[in-house]
Amino acid sequence: MLAAARKSLILFTSRSKFPAVILLLCIAAVALLEMLSIGLVIPLIQSSTIGLDQTGISAKFAQALFWLGLGAGPLTIAALFASVLVIKNLAILFLSYAIARTVALQSAQARKTLFNSYLRDPLEYHANRNSAELLRNIMTGCGQTFEAVRLLFILSLELLLSVAALSLLLLIEPKMTLVIGGVLILGSILFYRLTSRHFRYWGQKSLELEGAEIKWINEALGGIRLVKIYGVIAGFTKHLYSFARNRALYESRAMTAILLPRLYLETLAIIGFVIVVGYALALGKPMSEIVALVGVFALAAFRIIPSLNRVLTGAAEIRKRSPHIELIYHDLLQKREGFRPDLSNRENTITFSKQIELQNVSFTYKDATRPALSKVDLVIQQGESIGIVGPSGAGKSTLVDVIIGLVRPSNGHMLIDRLKVDDLIEPWQKHIGYVPQDIYLMDDTLARNVAFSIGDETPDLNRVRKAISMAQLDDLILTLPDGLDTMLGERGIRLSGGQRQRIAIARALYGHPDVLVFDEATAALDNESENEITMAIRDLSGKKTLLIIAHRLSTVRGCDRIVLMGDGRICDIGNFDELYTRSEDFRHLVELGDLIGTQGGRYPA
Asked: Measured in whole angstroms, how far is the alpha carbon of residue 231 from the centre of its chain?
């Protein structure tokens, strides 16, 4: 538990240690009030029965009251006791709220930081992590981690309250307090040692099963068409229930075990109470002194037992959350391998008016046996249209990912107008419009999808209309019931493939980019839709710098140059006819695509 507690506190104080210091000082002040409230019990009982003792603590207390100008009568002491009790309880209430609020705000900040961190991680990192894990860490992991921080503060408060009560008892009756305190402390330590590993195990299994649940739900909803068509709804439901049921069993064991400290400590308290009474009777103390002594120990027990219960329960809960804490600590604070953009340069600007240049660029994916790119040299002039072709695994997408800043080269550099942009990725990406093969559409209006507006951002409708016109989407607008304000549904489920592709093109054009990238933009379309998208792309030729990855060579037929790739290298560069004449590999791709003799025919040049 200590390691988990240390890591959670490091996370809590990573931005500022001030809140933690203030909370701890408040906890110490409340502990002093607790000590005072318990200490008033003996004078209160004595003044109400036989009068204040003229020796010991009661005498010193009476002197303090007279020094303050107060009497030492029962009513004065009772009023003072009630006042201290009310102030202490109000202080505990305020402190509990302050702890909860501070920790909750820090948890929200951690979610923001972790989410931002995941979004800025390189694509390779996301390729090696399941999105269900990241979702679980953001939504549940941060909450569990900072709940452990809250429990630590509560645990500190309860420990100090217990120490304050025991310290006062030591002043009143040292021997008896040492015996009873020893029994309670050793009993608590023994209980924690026997149960802590079980809480960690239950927490680890619950963490794993929660991730499996989220993953299963994502897969089922993401493939809803296939789930329905292939009739596997029952199978998905069965598997989800299996994970949920097993998780519920582990959680129920943990929740039941959480009750054990209270039952255990109540038993120890009864034993301690018997020891107090028996010890006092054995010493032959007068009944009035025994009553006062029992009253003090009873009030102390009333305070200490619940506190120790919360301490043991909190320790068990922290132990249960330790798998979450370790994950969040790792993902938030420990450095991971991979590319993190230099955010200090994100406000800088880059001009692109001449060329993009790759110099001796290589890149190898983690755990790969061969490089995805190897010693690539390429110059792309501003306004040029470049097709990128080759067999699967040739390095086409990796090449484009390097150019648009999604992947940092293992070796070599990229230059824009002869300026190295290794640490200027975000400014460079402002020049880029991107059209992927798998179109992502938000469950929002057409206008907000084209503008890719997030949150309360308001799209520029004039720019939206212009982008839609350039993407040849005007006919679609006429068919939509609410025009630009029509809701598209989750992932644009109500639209055809060609319509989704055109919306993606309009989105890419909305920001007036200098470079447009089409990554297999027509691969999933029928011939008619492909031809329409190809025409839309070619209408942009000369107006923008175009980078077009394609398996269907019809899409790149009219490009100024075509880059032929193989095994992570550039095999040849030229226009369509040049490559067809001199490259056997390119001719093979053409034959596979049935493109021989189609110049000026089925596929416009």
From this structure: 34
Are 64 and 155 members of one domain?
yes
Residue carrying the six token digits 């009035």: 288
Predicted local confidence at residue 564, as pLDDT = 94
Does residue 521 share a domain with residue 503? no
Q: What is the pTM of this model?
A: 0.70
CA dihedral 507, 512, 516, 518 (to 10 degrees): 10
Q: Are 227 and 236 in contact (CB under 8 A)?
A: yes
pLDDT for res 476: 81
Q: 469 and 561, same structural domain?
A: no
Q: Which residue has the higher pLDDT, 388 or 226?
A: 388
Q: What was the pLDDT predicted at 571? A: 93
Average pLDDT over residues 571-584: 91
Question: CA-CA distance, 402 to 347, in Å (whole number)?
Answer: 21
Give me the pLDDT at residue 382, please: 92
Residue type, 452: F
- Report d(CA 201, CA 323) in Å as an integer: 9
CATH number of the structural domain spanning residue 569 = 3.40.50.300
Other CB atoms within a 10 A radius of the CB of residue 233 amount to 12
Q: pLDDT tens, 199-220?
A: 888 888 888 888 888 888 888 8
Pair 38, 299: CB distance under 8 Å: yes
Cα distance between residue 446 and residue 361, in whole Å:
39
The per-residue pLDDT for 299 is: 65
Q: Could you tell me if 472 and 446 lie in one domain?
A: yes
pLDDT of residue 304 exceeding 80: no
Q: Tell me, yes or no, whether 217 and 233 share the same domain.
A: yes
User: What is the signed CA dihedral for 524, 525, 527, 528, rounded to 10 degrees?
Assistant: -170
In the block, tokens 């969040």 appear at 328
Cβ–Cβ < 8 Å for 533, 501 = yes
Structure tokens at 65: 């009251």
Query: In the listed set 512, 535, 551, which residue is the last one of a domain according to the structure?
Result: 512
Q: Which residues contact 37 (CB under 8 A, 6 or more apart)?
A: 81, 84, 85, 88
Q: Which of 561, 491, 86, 49 is nearest to 294 (CA)?
A: 49
